[in-house]
Amino acid sequence: MSYVPNTPAEREEMLLAMGKVCVEDLLVSIPQAVRLGRKLDIPAAKSEIQVMDELETMAEKNKVFKTCFRGAGAYRHFIPSVVRHLANRAEFVTAYTPYQAEMSQGVLQAIFEYQTMICEITGMDVSNAGVYDGAQAAAEAISMFKERKRLKAVVSGAVKPMTLEVIKTYCAAAGSELVIIPVKNGKTDIDALSAALDDTTACVYMEQPNFFGLVEDAEKIAGMTHSAGAKLIMGCYPTSLAVLKTPAEHGADAAVGEAQPLGLPLSFGGPYLGFMALMKADTRRLPGRIVGQTADKAGRTAYVLTLQAREQHIRREKACSSICSNEALCALTATIYCAAMGKEGLREVAEQCLAKAHYAAEQITSVKGFNFTHDGFFFNEFVTDCPVEPEALMAKLAENNMLGGLPFKEKDKNRILWCVTELNTKAEIYNLVNILKEAVK
Amino acid sequence: MSGLIFEKSKTGRRCSSLPDCGVDFYAVPDEFKRKTSMNLPEIAEVDLVRHYTNLSRRAYGVDNGFYPLGSCTMKYNPKINEDTAALKGFTNIHPLQDIKTIKGCLEAMDILSGYLCEITGMDAITLQPAAGAHGEFTGLSMIKAYLLDKGETQRSKLIVPDSAHGTNPASAAMADFDVINIPSTAEGMVDLAELEKAVGDDTAALMLTNPNTVGMFDKNIGKIAEIVHKAGGLLYYDGANMNAIMGITRPGDMGFDVMHINLHKTFSTPHGGGGPGSGPVACKAKLQPFLPKPVVKLDDGKYTFAEPEKSIGMVRSFYGNFLVCVRALAYIMSIGAEGIREASENAVLNANYMMEMLKGTYDVPFEGPCMHEFVLSLESLKKQTGITASDIAKGLVDKGIHPPTMYFPLIVHEALMLEPTETESRETLDSAITAFKEVYTIAFENPQALHDAPLSTPVGRPDETTAVRNPVLRFDFS
Fold first, then answer.
1. Number of inter-chain CB pairs under 8 A, A vs B
2. I need a labelling partner for B476 at 20 to 30 A (CA). Which of A111, A302, A324, B186 fits?
């Protein structure tokens, strides 16, 4: 298959029109010394039928589970059909970044709607157009709050391990100090946090709920952070915010997170979407694209990429970040999802996650040995002990077309991080519990 | 003007529905409960569909028409790519599933990795970075870790030509390098004398695009690599312009040590209005131990994840924009080894054809042949008529063409940068050439018409100054 429309004869005519004989005449500036001089060692072209067949075969080598009790940073939620249909419209899919505002009003308006929705969900004042994913959003937020005399980032050890990994990478590259606060009973150790805060601290990063699913005492953390003159960045699960206290209500200075739960499929980890929102006073610190509303000469409402003086193409090495793309199609998808679920729908999703998770937790912990590892209020993820060999248990669940919770070790003890969403039914929970009971027999 | 989705909201309207919960409601304890309202729209499905369908009609993609946006490689995005990326066996896979249940994903990543290494002439690769700029940050972090590992901590300077993409110096700053900008020659090439002056035992690396941002292949590349390597520095290749050289020459053979590839440019995955892209980073063996973790490894016929021994860590969660990688794989499989070279040759052919046909009308500051893109300078037109690059661009909008990249590269005044790509037919190029010439004529005959352009779009030129002075960044519900 070739996607080049011009036939060999047409190519020759074009060359002739330029007074050239062959394409090689156009490549004279490439020295022979650096030429490949052979054909690429890649298979020959395949027909659409063959390509589809090969990729279908590959996809079939993966196991798609009917039932999923695993989250830990990637969540299976209901996605209404209408979301994919609209987000797949070719005008959106095949567009570039909306540099030419007049012919990109559709993309720009959708981003403006996205920014509004993120503000509404988080309670914050301003949002950017999105970044790569939740972990990178956290890392960007940390570098955003660094000041000349405040370079230290303090991060809770109870955040998602991958988020912590990404933060470490960004801090190591920038050569800036990072302090990780230990975990105590599944939550950020408040005393250790207090001891780590000083007048060189730029910001504190925590997650709400945290990796273990527990809701932290964020107000207390916000108070301590602010007393030290630092900023609080809260990583959140957007769905939970339909019922849980918002970052703004907790007193956070920035809300970031993974927006994958808002209409994006699991997709083996990507594409996902990071969101970043903060308070008005800090607007010009935000990295990434931002869309603003204005008007044209005739007074018609118009949308543009704005506040670009922060960005790499203007400020180059003085820019706050090098990011230029904003996972726009993912942001559009999240926007359509939020509109489709609506105010009541998203609340219902959150309520069902909460209710089913608490029901499942009650059932699971009634099985001998699957005790709660931690105390405290959780949203839709929780940790239990695991009295049996986790690998064998997971295999048993897989035989029943179930992806069990995520096994992990805590000081050599086996634990499972369970996740329940609105897609899990009471019957699935019943089946799960029966298998657990069978396993401990 | 179609209003915002919020303005169409009516209390009580619903689109989605969930089955009954089936278990008892669980009340959030008061101390953790949300107190403020959350104004998401309330809308019926039909109105939702019409709203976003109408917004899509105010967007413009490659599927709508010609898109010669320089440095962005707006080639056609084959539809089969979309179908392969929509396979349930890819979309419904949890990233933390057991290794035995994700063989197909790992195979896809491994095959794509192999193809990309062969095309770039590199030894190893990560698919984790989500975009080109993210790849730059990743590659530069690897360079930093490599130098640190060798104990060469004094190598703090990163050399960047003044013609470089803005992301280059910005990424360098994120990796805590001191950026040294060096001027280009009058031909837009690396000034060898300036480079000689800039390198030393404090040089970490040179970041370069070749062909460069004026669309010319720097034929001194061998010498450039020698100068930098001799000084103990490394060479980073910005893969934004890879579409010019595939199957002809490879960054690895030019002497580059590490690079990123833009799958959303060179490998036909759609741009999505600004992402998701994918920016894999490929490198020579000496940098392999520093790649982000995890990497896919084929061990005794079985796929597994491995952690490079001196890995810089992770640059995002999981393994990258996997579905974008699937699209790129489908593309390479579809066009094959010969199609890859054919794509680059025709990208070069189309660019030269347009440049040649526009030469008599517009000023071409760099004598050709060019590679896959070229730059026009409207400096003299501006002097004669007051018409700017932006005015010409807006005139082109009214001709139904997406304008070229404006005011880039920075080393050319009133620049317009055109990249037609290989997927445009001669007729499309010819009609665009006619449109460019017509707009040029209007600049002399009726400049006001161009100052007023565009007229064919839903809105005219937005007032950007007001947007910055008085930022309105969200809908106000009050």
1. 678
2. A324
CA–CA gap between residue B161 and residue B183 (Å, rounded): 6
Q: Is residue A264 within 8 Å of A273, Cβ to Cβ?
A: yes
Nearest to B25 among A15, A355, A398 (CB): A355
- Tell me which residue of B220, B216, B212 sits closest to B237, measured CA to CA: B212
Q: Which amino acid is at B82?
A: E
DSSP notation for B319-376: TS-HHHHHHHHHHHHHHHHHHHHHHHHHHHHHHHHHHHHHTTTSB-SS-S--SS-EEE
Average pLDDT over residues B216-228: 96
Domain count for chain B, please give it: 3
Q: Return the CATH number at B158.
A: 3.40.640.10
Averaged pLDDT for residues B285-299: 96
Of B78, B249, B276, Cβ closest to residue A34: B249
Q: Tell whether B222 and B255 lie within a shared domain.
A: yes
Distance from CA of B433 to the nearest CA of A (A): 13
Distance from C-alpha of B120 to C-alpha of B106, rounded to nearest angstrom: 21
Residues B149 and B279 in one domain: yes
d(CA B129, CA B263): 11
Distance between CA atoms of A190 and A184, rounded to whole angstroms?
A: 8
Residue ranges for chain A with pLDDT beneath 70: none
Coil, helix or strand at residue A139: helix
Contact B282, B258 (CB under 8 A): yes
Judge if the upstream peptide bond of residue A209 is cis by omega within 30 degrees of 0: yes
Q: Which domains are delineated in chain A?
A: 67-76+342-440 (3.90.1150.10), 81-337 (3.40.640.10)
pLDDT of B430-475, one tens digit each?
999 999 999 999 999 999 999 999 999 999 999 999 999 999 999 9
**Token representation of residue B144:** 């930093």
Subunit contact A86:B53, Cβ cutoff 8 A = yes
At residue A316, the pLDDT reads 80
Question: Which pLDDT does position A165 carry in this prediction?
Answer: 98
The answer, for B72 touching chain A at a CB cutoff of 8 Å, is yes
pLDDT at B218 over 50: yes
Which tens digit of pLDDT belongs to each residue from B161-205?
988 888 999 999 999 999 999 999 988 899 999 999 999 999 999
DSSP structure class, residue A96:
-
pLDDT at B1 (0 to 100): 45
Q: Provide the domain limits for residue B278.
A: 80-334
Do B93 and B102 touch, CB atoms closer than 8 A?
A: yes
**Whether B283 and B156 share a structural domain:** yes
The Cβ of residue A48 has, within 10 Å, a number of other Cβ atoms equal to 14
Structure tokens at A31: 């020295």
Query: How far is B145 from B329, CA to CA, in rounded Å?
Result: 30
* ipTM of the prediction: 0.97
CA distance A105 to B460: 11
Tell me what pLDDT residue B2 has: 67
Written as six digits, the tokens of A386 are 């695991």
What are the pLDDT digits (tens) for A31-63? Answer: 999 999 999 999 999 999 999 999 999 999 999
pTM, two decimals, is 0.97
